[in-house]
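Quick log. Single chain, no ligands specified.
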Amino acid sequence: MDTRTFAIVRGSWRMLGATGVHPLLEGVIAPLNGLEAVDGGSHVFGAPGVIFGNEDLPADNDGQPLGQMVPSADLQKALDEIAGQIAGTDERLTILQKARFKTLEEGPGPATVVLEDGTRIRTRLVAACDGVNSSVRDALGIGTEDHDYGKSVFAANVKLDRPHEGIARQLFMPEGPFATLPMPDNKANLAWYMKRGAAEALADMPVEDIEAELNARFEDFAGHMTIDGPVISYPLKMRLARAMTGPHVALLGDAAHRINPLAGQGLNLGFKDVAALIDIMVESREVGLDHGAAPALERYQQWRRFDMTSVALFMDVIDRAFSNDNAVLKPLRGLALTAANKIGPLRRAMARQASADQTHLPSLMQ
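-> predicted structure:
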């Protein structure tokens, strides 16, 4: 069972609204009203931190908060339902179930997608959203830059004994971050970064032992926690595609970038990919150009590659800088967090970046 809960930030939530899924998610989502980061470990004058919230963002016409917390399984179900409704009324959308990709055939015209059952599909553009181990990316011969952090993440849903008020909270410990993401009914989705093997071992323990470990370490930070549902663990790795396009192909989401899940930016990067590709396709069609031709795909790569790489590297730097108890780095981290908390324009800029609420973003996210 997928226990993940995604932080869908304001810009991404606007884009999802265009699909019509918002009504299908009522009752399972929780508003994300703020983000808090606290530097744990040992500090002479207390652990410094930073928090920003809805008040640090420009007013939204629909009164949207910084974002929405959406359970993965519910989001998938809602998107599948919308896609099924469209396919049932619009012949331009065809859903092929249990159809596995085999290879791509290139030629002077459109690309040909070959499925394992022999089905052949000619198309001007292949939008490859087939995950971190993308078969389409492999078929194009696009390599990746990989980094294994030597860590794993323990994840679970928990009930809290005190109100979370819609605040996503992150405690940076020397061994890695501990985060709680708000959910309805005063529940939270937690993620605890641990050394490889430790997270897996914790996930295999009896529930009462897991609760005892969590509360012994983090009750002062998060409140008393009670496990609510299954627990999982997964290895922490980064994988970046060396190119985001090929002939008549664009890579999106995890097929192009699997980044450190710190701050929950991974899925939102994928939504930016989708929104950017839609803008480019629409603009190309309006001027009578092929939306799957090299000029359009080059625009997509230029638009998205810098953002993808910079976010991935920034998350990597943050993880490395805060996941230690270094006597030299600690005061520098404290100064940076204090500045971010006290300097209004800096705090507001961080809030807009984190919420994807900026004017240079794709049109569906504005």
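Residues 12 and 271 are 6 Å apart (CA to CA).
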